[in-house]
Amino acid sequence: MTDPIKTLIADDHELVRAGLRDALSSIPELEVVGEVSNGPELFNAINKLRPDLLVMDVNMPDFEPVSAVKQILQWLPDLKILVVSAYDDEAYITGLLSAGARGYHLKDQPLSDLHLAVNRILAGGRWLSDPLVNLLVHRQINISSTAQSLTKRQGELLYLLSQGFNNNKIALMMGISVKTVENHLTTLYRLIGVESRLEANKYASLHPELVAPPKKESSSPGFRSINEGMVSVLLVDDNSRFRTQLGRLINRSYPSVVVREAEDSQDAYNIVTQFHPKLAFVDVVMSDEDGIKCTSKIKSISPETRVVLISAYPDRELHRLGIAAGAAAFLDKKDIDSSTIRQVIDDSIPR
User: Which of 150, 246, 265, 337 has its CA 20 to 30 A from that of 259?
Assistant: First the structure.
């Protein structure tokens, strides 16, 4: 007798989980071994249960689906992942399939189709709900056109954006002025249909075929190869103007430091997971999550990262909570100048 196929269900709605559990129970070889409702619960269950099949929604608290699928499949390469979602958003679909999900099933499709989807995926195939086929065919035509219109230099720029580099560092690496970088970014944003740095980063992760990692012998004049051993500093703040000012302040004193930027906590977690920066400046007040929770999560992902909390409204209780969460220091934004930056970086990065 073969072992049952261990199945994990991930959805933040209890009724939906119950419906999925009932539907999957009619497939004899499956055994539902767990249910979760958010990102942290999912990662814990993956580590503990090591399932064979994951049936998951894309919209859960504390969860970024594309990066999560990539990370989960690094841990369990043989895991089969079926996305079951109400969203027919093109970015989610293409991003998740590119990340390694084996199928994408719409919740409004017949129950019999869900059974077909599971059986096909378990047999080694792929699944896509019928309404999504035309969407992806149209998308492929558009992407092919975009790929042909991106120059090598624009592909390099998209890559550097995906690495979290700020404009100063991009200018240094490409051997051009910051103003030229800004002009190139305006053109690139218009071409790929985005309006911000964060959207461009997400676009790059969803469309890796358009990203062109620069080579040492790059045709871009003056291009400087990326030194993987460079010290990196992460700036986490939803105020883009302040991030730019702080980044310039850092690079003025330490030109070789790689400054990466995140405008929300999820973006910060992705950068910390990928690059493990030596130092992170984290604003206490952000739109999606407070900096104290963000500090705790950063330290859990990368214990060696030194976190400095910053705030325009310093408070003794916030200072206490921040230090308890793992921050090494708490700075008033009004007090941050070149001298303060040098002291913090020298303390964080032994020379």
Answer: 150
> Does one domain contain both 241 and 175?
no
* Tokens linked to 319: 């200072």
- 201 and 248 within one domain: no
Domain range enclosing 288: 232-348
Question: HSE on the CB side for 6, CA within 13 Å?
Answer: 12
Q: Check whether 58 has a pLDDT greater than 50.
A: yes
Q: What is the pTM of this model?
A: 0.46
Kindly report, residue by residue over 171-182, the tens digit of the pLDDT. Answer: 888 878 888 888
**Pair of tokens at residue 79:** 């895991």
CB 265 within 8 A of CB 240: no
CA angle 237, 243, 247 (to 5 degrees): 135
10 Å CB burial of residue 68 (0-12, 13-18, 19+) is buried
Q: What is the pLDDT of residue 220?
A: 44
Return the SS3 of 148.
helix
Residues 6 or more apart in contact with residue 199 via CB below 8 angstroms: 189
Amino acid (1-letter code) at residue 215: K
Which positions ≥6 away from 182 have C-beta within 8 Å? Answer: 167
Cross-strand pairs, 279: 233, 306
Structure tokens at 144: 């092919």
